[in-house]
Amino acid sequence: KTFKTKLQLFKISLLLASIFIKRPALFLLNRTTKREMKLLTHNILQHNMKDGKRGYPLVIQATKIDKVEADYNPEFLIRMLDRLEYPVLVHALEMIGMKDFLPIMLPEKFAEEEEFMKHLHHALLEIEIVDGEMICPVSGRKFPIKDGIPNMLLTEEETAADVKP
């Protein structure tokens, strides 16, 4: 694996760890490291509400999108597809104006279809949402994306336990 691919996997691991332990992992990243909000990241983010409801998938309203180059790694894509919600990825592409970029249904032998795999690679790893917001479909809560960093921090009110005196 190239250094760039390993760095991307490390960033994804940090993000997943920060979601599961409910603490931001940004302090672990070098300040000079470019942070990106990719559709891969969007696919795993959700709004967990105090009442147990789950806001998923988040609606994307992008005001700035960039396209960057990333090393093509079909093995990584195949492994990630087991962990992703493919229909959510297709819907995310629609929300950013790329309807019909990927087929609605995952091809049965997708690993053998090179054109599909390259489109999947582009969708997951080369499209960056630089600015905009994600909106919880349940609560309507808006989570800003600024310079490629989604701010998913909850307010004190959202995290406070219901304590009765």
Walk across the major sheet and give the strand order: 3-4-5-6
Distance, first to last CA: 56 Å
Total E-strand runs: 6
Cα-atom Rg, whole angstroms?
17 Å
Structural class: alpha+beta
Describe the main β-sheet briefly: 4 strands, antiparallel
The low-confidence parts are 22-33
Q: What is the helical fraction, as a range of percent? A: 25-40%
β-strand amount: 15-25%
Instruction: Give the overall silhouette.
Output: globular
Helical region count?
6
Q: What is the H/E order?
A: HHEEEHHHEEEH
Overall average pLDDT: 84
Summarize the structure.
By secondary structure, the protein is of the alpha+beta class. The chain has six helices and six strands.
Kindly describe this structure.
It contains six helices and six strands, in the order ααβββαααβββα. The protein is of the alpha+beta class. The strands form two sheets. It has a four-stranded antiparallel β-sheet with strand order 3-4-5-6. It is globular and about 50 Å long. The relative contact order is 0.19. About 7% of the residues have low confidence.
